[in-house]
Design goal:
Number of helices: 12
Helix content: 25-40%
Largest sheet: 12 strands, antiparallel
Number of strands: 12
Structural class: alpha+beta
Radius of gyration: 22 Å
Number of domains: 2
């Protein structure tokens, strides 16, 4: 089968693990050599649960690497993912120059990331931030540095990055307009050549551009079809049961989108109403970026796809979910695909014949994904 043709602007996040002794820098350098481009280091933001009372999360900045091609166009970024833990030697010492910066205030870290030099050593990155608060860095054991304000309240903490945290490598592609198969295949070939493996907890996330979804009736149709069939589609594409940060939407979402009042809302009003339902990004199908109108990531995100070192399985699943989106934005969204079983849904999406055949065949082999 040729690569499925994807007709929707989309970006991919593919979670991989570098072999021991290698880092995500090595994959970034390989990709840059292939495309005649350059690599630059940047601060990649992440959140993780906190065990400190009163502080539900800590915000992190860790080293990421951007590759641009010879014309200066972004190809992909190569970043850490804190959910990838299995197989790492947590007692391994830090690599020289690898560190993380932590704070309980994401706004401060976003400010630091915009103005600090990610290419510098930890002290060079933090010193200007400390001077912004009129203080000097506090030095502690183990190479830890602390930024405090004039009242010695902690603002941010920097420390060397131990435990092989240089090995997790999430490939984050630039948004792809066309030739999705060729672009993904080249990146995954590079990853295979570097000896990358699929981690125990890995997933692939697809961010579909949300420009066409900014309509209350479209969102209502999308929520309806995925409320009915989202679990079956998740099993159908072979989600990884070891993957974390998945789950269902809040109950308030379906209650809102099924209401007659929601269907009549203009988009700004509908978007505000969606934000009141308790949406989170950590679910199977992420509507938060669309509802929050995030400028840097205005997308609908599918988070249930497994990781592969070949492009074909990723593209087949992408084509399936693209079909769901095209049905939701199309004039026939009031029709049978929602009310029928998952096989009826697949048959009613207007997929390319080979893609439809693939998923129908798979649906009939999975008892929990068959007609209900």
């Amino acid at each position: 089968m040729d690569f499925p043709v994807i007709g929707w602007k989309a970006g991919f996040e593919i979670e991989l693990m570098m072999p021991r002794g290698r880092s995500r820098t090595d994959l970034a350098l390989r990709v840059a050599r292939r495309c005649g481009g350059t690599v630059s280091r940047f601060f990649h933001p992440q959140s993780e649960p906190s065990k400190v009372p009163g502080r539900p999360t800590f915000e992190n900045l860790t080293p990421g690497f951007r590759v641009r091609d010879g014309a200066g166009r972004l190809v992909a970024s190569f970043v850490d993912d804190l959910t990838l833990q299995a197989g790492l030697n947590k007692d391994a010492p830090p690599r020289e120059g690898w560190y993380r910066i932590v704070s309980d205030d994401g706004r401060l870290l976003r400010l630091l990331a915009r103005h600090a030099d990610a290419e510098s050593e930890l002290e060079g990155a933090l010193m200007p931030f400390a001077h912004l608060f009129g203080t000097e860095l506090e030095r502690h054991d183990g190479g830890m540095l602390r930024v405090v304000d004039e009242r010695r309240v902690s603002v941010a903490i920097g420390a060397p990055l131990p435990g092989e945290r240089e090995r997790p490598c999430e490939i984050v592609t630039a948004p792809i307009l066309e030739d999705h198969g060729a672009i993904l295949s080249a990146l995954l070939d590079d990853a295979a050549a570097e000896g990358c493996a699929v981690p125990l907890e890995s997933a692939t996330h697809v961010h579909f551009d949300a420009a066409a979804l900014q309509d209350a009736r479209v969102v209502a149709a999308l929520v309806d079809v995925l409320s009915r069939h989202g679990d079956s589609l998740k099993r159908l594409v072979g989600f990884n049961p070891h993957c974390v940060r998945l789950g269902r939407w809040p109950e308030a979402l379906a209650a809102l989108t099924r209401s007659a009042a929601f269907a009549e809302m203009a988009w700004p009003e509908a978007r505000a109403a969606l934000m009141q339902t308790g949406l989170t990004k950590y679910c199977d199908y992420n509507l938060l970026n669309l509802a929050a109108d995030h400028r840097d990531k205005h997308t609908f995100e599918v988070r249930v796809m497994p990781t592969s070192l070949t492009a074909q399985p990723i593209l087949l699943a992408t084509a399936l979910f693209e079909g769901v989106l095209r049905w939701a934005v199309g004039p026939g969204r009031e029709g049978a695909p929602v009310s029928s079983g998952v096989s009826g849904l697949i048959a009613g999406l207007g997929l390319a014949r080979d893609v439809e055949r693939h998923w129908l065949d798979r649906a009939f082999t999975l008892p929990h994904a068959a007609e209900r």
